[in-house]
Amino acid sequence: MTPVELLIRRLGTAGDGIAETPEGPVYVARALPGERITARMTGRDRAEPEAILDPSPERTAPPCRHFGEGCGGCATQHWAQAPSIAWKEARLAEALTRAGFADPILLPAAVTPPGRRRRADLAVRRDGPAIRLGFHRRGEGAVLDLLECAVLDPALVSLLPALREALRRLPALKREASAVLNLLHTGPDLLLRTDGVPDASARAALAEFARAHGMPRIAWAKGEGAPENAAQLGPVSLKVGGVAVAPPPGAFLQASPEGEAAIIAAVLAGLPEKLPAKARIADLYAGIGTLSFPLAGRGMVAAYEGAAAAVTALDGGARASGLRVKAARRDLARQPLLVPELSPFAAVVLDPPFAGAAAQMPLLARAKVPRVIYVSCNPAALSRDAAVLAAAGYRLVSARLVDQFLWSAQIEAVAVFAR
């Protein structure tokens, strides 16, 4: 197909450059605003750049070889950090403005450095005698075999060649699998989801792999089933909010230690300055207690979480530390806290999943809780949920971008609302 010449006007929410044509917008990966390029159309509204005729002064050399190969792990490695952060801040401000908070002023962004991401959710595919282990290609189901990564902690990257070889020899991997790696304080923790069942010899091989690489646990599940321990050589532990917990296999963690610390700091700074010693604070979607434990230094915390294994980890950490945290299992999408349950709290902190907290927000607004602190990983959900607070008379106290998803289009933020 004959290349077309395009002028990139702006960036879309996925980090693609957008060119306006008579047929409509065209999305171009790895292109920047202001650039004039030639591109090859790959679909009705998609194109791949072939040559950059007028490069942006903000363009920079990507630090990872896989970026140019279409790795789906990153979207903006070709963009200088300052304009990239400004773009994310503008998207956060726009989301809050749409919610009804005019001209929001953002606190300085907290930016995670390269090589600090401690969690990887990797795809695995058997291709004849070889194994592909890595992230999916952008917009495709194909798996890009990961040989290096500028985002992940080097301790996880260094494990990949040996893991690839171990998976190649694993009969329980017939065609496709996934591997979730979490870097805990006790070492790397692995959850394998395969399309077959490991026999006794395969489990012994996994145990030997764990021993060779300082991994106290390897868990396994078939498909989306419940995980079980395939090899446990010692206890697992991670300090969250200063408290040691035993995370379940594949547990959700904040992406980096720096990102976690920035979120905790923003949440604590968002609390009312003067709280009585017996003030009650709710932590909704509490996970394994990342925010519950720091909050316990400011009041009595009621932590609500829907995943049973996470509640067990949270409760165990609370009991061992003696902190004022009471954990309860509750699916807040199906059974949100009611107005009488919410009203006694001096502050409610919530860190919902990507879809947000649509079921909980109207009840939270009606409860007239003095302070609401919302940790968001989705500007669209934040805008929708914050609009409920704006309609109920809340004002925006502060908002801060936490850029722990380096070189991606994803946005993490902490927004503080008060009545």
From TrEMBL:
Pfam families: tRNA_U5-meth_tr
Transmembrane feature ranges: none
PROSITE patterns (UniProt xref): SAM_MT_RNA_M5U
InterPro entries, A to Z: NA-bd_OB-fold (IPR012340), SAM-dependent_MTases_sf (IPR029063), U5_MeTrfase_fam (IPR010280)
Record GO biological process: methylation
PANTHER family reported in the protein's UniProt record: 23S RRNA (URACIL(1939)-C(5))-METHYLTRANSFERASE RLMD, RNA M5U METHYLTRANSFERASE
Family that this chain belongs to: Belongs to the class I-like SAM-binding methyltransferase superfamily. RNA M5U methyltransferase family.
The name this protein goes by in its record: Class I SAM-dependent RNA methyltransferase
Organism: Plastoroseomonas hellenica
Source lineage: Bacteria, Pseudomonadati, Pseudomonadota, Alphaproteobacteria, Acetobacterales
